Amino acid sequence: MNGWDRVRPSRSRLGGSRATSMSSFGSERHSSSQTIHLGRVQPQAPGHRTIYCNDREANLPVKFKGNSISTTKYNIFTFLPKGLFEQFRRVANLYFLMISILSATPISPVHPITNVVPLSLVLFVSLVKEAFEDWKRLLNDRVINSSPIDVLQEQKWESIPWKKLQVGDIVRVKQDGFFPADLLFLASTNPDGICYTETANLDGETNLKIRKALERTWDYLIPDKASEFKGEIQCEQPNNSLYTFTGNLIVKKQTLPLSPNQILLRGCSLRNTEYIVGAVIFTGHETKVMMNAMNVPSKRSTLERKLDKLILALFGGLFFMCLIGAIGSGVFINRKYYYLGLSESVEDQFNPSNRFVVAILTMFTLITLYSTIIPISLYVSIEMIKFIQSTQFINKDLHMYHTETNTPALARTSNLNEELGQVEYIFSDKTGTLTRNLMEFFKCSIGGEVYGTGITEIERGAAQRSGRKFEEVQKSANAVHEKGFNFDDARLMRGAWRNECNPDTCKEFFRCLAICHTVLPEGDESPEKITYQAASPDEAALVTAAKNFGFFFYRRTPTTIKVRESHVEKMGKIQDVSYEILSVLEFNSTRKRQSVICRHPDGRLVLYCKGADSVIFERLADDNSQVKILTREHLEQFGSSGLRTLCLAYRDLSNDLYERWNEKFIQAKSSLRDREKKLDEVAELIEKELILIGCTAIEDKLQDGVPACIETLSRAGIKIWVLTGDKMETAINIAYACSLINNDMKQFVISSETDAIREMESRGDPVETARFIRETVKQELRKCLEEAQQHLHTVSKQKLALIIDGKCLMYALDPALRGNLLNLSLNCSAVVCCRVSPLQKAQVTSLVKKGAKKITLSIGDGANDVSMIQAAHVGIGISGLEGMQAVMASDFAIAQFRFLTDLLLVHGRWSYLRICKVVTYFFYKNLTFTLTQFWFTFQTGFSGQRFYDDWFQSLYNVIFTALPVIIVGLFDKDVSASLSKKYPELYKEGIRNTFFKWRVVGVWAFFSLYQSLIFYYFVTISSRGGQNSSGKTFGLWDISTMAFTCVVVTVNLRLLMACNSITRWHHISVAGSILAWFVFIFLYSGVMTPYDRQENIFFVIYVLMSTFYFYLTLLLVPVVALLGDFLYQGLQRWLWPYDYQIIQEMHRDDPDDSSRTELLEIGNQLTPDEERSYAISQLPKEKSKHTGFAFDSPGYESFFASQQGVFAPQKAWDVARRASMRSQPRTEKTY
After folding, report:
1. What is the per-residue pLDDT for 697?
2. Which of 283, 378, 520, 775 is most buried (CB neighbours < 10 A)?
3. Which helix (H) or strand (E) holds 695?
4. Are residues 540 and 627 in the same domain?
5. Does 622 qualify as catalytic in the annotation?
6. Mean pLDDT of 1045-1070
7. Residues 986 and 1035 grouped into a single domain
8. Where is Mg(2+) annotated to bind (predicted)?
9. Is 1125 known to sit in a ligand binding site?
10. Is there a binding annotation on residue 622?
11. What is the pLDDT of residue 523?
12. In terms of domains, do 890 and 867 share one?
């Protein structure tokens, strides 16, 4: 069902978010350029909705919405008005509309077609693009709306289209089918009323979720029984919160509470279940997935906003030129020029009796005449260039292709290509972004005793920094290493834990691992073949650890967990134990813990709890303080080794205590208002007086190439901040391991984990504690800022680093303190923020973006990074193991952090250089063309007489100078990709915006002025004595055609002078543009039709080309016009070279195919992944020697790979390309 791809269209994103680790946030991220809103649910209608199941007539008075959906922007009636409105929101289009209207008035010196044709062409192309995109959306909508679904009608299943479904209908969904609406889950073919769903269309996660029907509805599975179901549903109004639901089901006067576990959301699919039966509760645009479809936050690049200022400057120049002309016409107009026939009856524009009216009307006349100074085709050209850059260069770059996951880079928007070349601050998540998010159970602490040997990457890096030598620990011969488990300690393996001093504690530890989770087992019920579907890699690692310790979790039902326990009663004995699950208190970001209440086979009631150390230690019983002290020491030890920690605890419950608590729990579950809050409050009543068992330590290794990437980006002038929810010790050690922080840096640490703050918190006064922490943070910020300023003024220029935790950050972001925080942060080369929430990540990003006016980039892989990604100028999503929601909210998606090097230093820098060149060249060529018309105005008494023919003016931007600038925007390149990465300092030119400053624009404007003077006065003065073959002197249209020919030839040749690399495409486009002009003028001046203004140009080019003057002028004018540019470029390169020009000179003698030879030189430094990508890139393909990989053909990889023994995934285009290849004759070599 490909139609479901439309649920997340290019213009929409899912706003609900998926939590990392064991959590799920029920919140939507709204992002704009102004504020970041987190966790806000759309307003609901008052009260609740009542739905009568299996009774369409009873639901009819309510008029629920239908199930048909539409994701299109337009319909047949709104397309033109709405589409045109969208186009005229652009200032340039609105300006040209005004010019087109003015050109249709009598005061216009040019024919309306001069301005109408280019505007119509631009609007036509834009509207066709909009129509094509909307048509694709319409086709996808039709596919979805026409999908069949089985509905219960007259005691049998009838197949109807989705769009005819109504609220209250009873439906049947088969295996692998999609849910057509939001359903109440009634019954399933699986035992105990459970089903498995895949939520990939909601949050990108492919791991299965378990849903359980109410036991009261399990029987409604076959049509006969289902037709008897006449329940009444009272539930919340439609809203966009994906992970919450409150409602009650009333069946035969019995009220049953409903939770998200009974809700099947539209867009999800059914897995591992033959079929389910459900009742429709929300349809169409009221379903949660459709209410989450929101417009992509509109992001405009910084360069595009500066382009608006340049356009305004051109408006100013246009107004100034028109003002000069208007004043001149008011002064010049006089009846003494009798030959002008300025009698009393002359039209107002030329009536000397009212000079003010003459000036005003001349002003409007000149506005239409000089309208070409604003380039209407600029926006279309830039959009085309950016689109091709994204789809052909970024998406198909083999250097950013991840072989293991078969994931290429993906540009989800083309608006921000050049922004990638100006990034100064990177905000990065840690888990899954800098690290692999492949969790392995590494060590643990049980009853105050540490178990597990081995050295982490972080410890190894720390040892290297301090100069210490670590003796590598030899793994034991029978050590077990599988996915999620990298633990080696014979004291716990194969039942050896029975010989420890605390075997009962060990047993509780393993049972907690095996029971307290939400993991789903799949496959054969054997330890070797079973696979675990978990909400996070941490969960899977803990259950895998329990399996290896002899507590094998192999089956789950809604009410039981089955564990195969080994060596419990005596060595070698294996028994299957069934634990009855009575209640599950789920993990969320507020609670930071998860609890399960279960009944052992012997009747014992136990609450098992696991969670963050900060929340578990608060809820421990007062006894056994020695274990607490030791475990806290072990937690710090694990944290300093870069390991992720969780604490495990349990509590024995009496039946009476549980029954009393369960009544309150059921009451909270049945509540329609504030259900989540009430459930948390009830959970607090039983999650106390816990007994600490121990803690786990899980290793999350760094991704390949992260340290080298960060070092390269730092050399490029980019400052990197790490924003993570981990503990400070873990975050600091990860920062050390990836070369973000080193011992040479001066480190400022602002932490809430101080003795003074702990003492204040222990007094239990939250108001006084908050005031104390705020004052402490204020003093620390002021102290650190003073030290930082002193260090910056010292000779050593020592680099600075700031480490701050979430609690202190909350106060530091206060409006009164954020100024100091910003100043301190901007002086630091690296910043690490620990224990931060998703909202704080977005706030920190916005602080630098808006407060410092710096270009920011956020990169993350989880749903908790969405707000940060949307808050930055550029958002990068990593397609990792935490679902695809970060990718769906991002502007660009990559598979590994190290690919940032290519994305920023190569594609970003090239895009910035190219777009700058395109914009400044457009400015130059339009200003040059308009100024020649301006100089002519001085010789026409400021009357507004046109110098060029209307069609010359119309086609100048559209045909005669259009293609070459697009070619430059696509293929110009100052240095190769490998040199861009070898010399990352080149990137600083983009951060400083070197190539789009007013000084650069001023230089182009100066030479535009110089060249326009050459074009006009050289041609007009030299042609005064000129004669054609019949002896006639040249007239206005002869001279203007000559001048226009010189303009077209010169501006096209000037573009070649601005290029750093010239390919055959440059030659073809420039020669083609000049040739297009000659073809056009030959045809245009050779044909004349009545009722047009073409008689002016009739036969002009033939007359001109019959004279020696034409060829001499065509040779001399471009040479003289470009002489100034040639001298300036030579002097600038010699005396004040740009950084890239120095690199060009250093490598001017390198072979043309330098990028690949350099790759060979650094081959020994490549990771296995990079070596494979490089091997693929070496395969034969079409190539231009001038272009590096920008021209590489995407085809042939898999074919030639098989010939050379290199693995490369099969691509769809390989088949098509090989099928279309021309057979080449083989020539046999003789040796």
Report:
1. 93
2. 283
3. strand 691-702
4. yes
5. no
6. 92
7. yes
8. 429, 431, 861, 865
9. no
10. no
11. 79
12. yes
